[in-house]
Amino acid sequence: VPPGWSYEHDMELGRFLYDHSEKLQHMDCTKEHINSIEVSSQAEDCAAAHLTDNLTYTFWESSGPPGQHWVRLNMKKGAIVKRLWLILDGQSSSYVPRRVAVYGGTLSRLQHLRTVLINENSYRNVCILRDMKTHMPVLEIRFLECRDQGQDVRLQGIKIVSFWEWDLILNAGMFQPAQLVRYSLLEGVDADVLYRRAVLIQRFVQLLESVLCYLIPLSEDSIGTFNALR
Question: For the chain, what are the domain ranges?
Answer without folding.
Answer: 7-25+167-210, 34-164
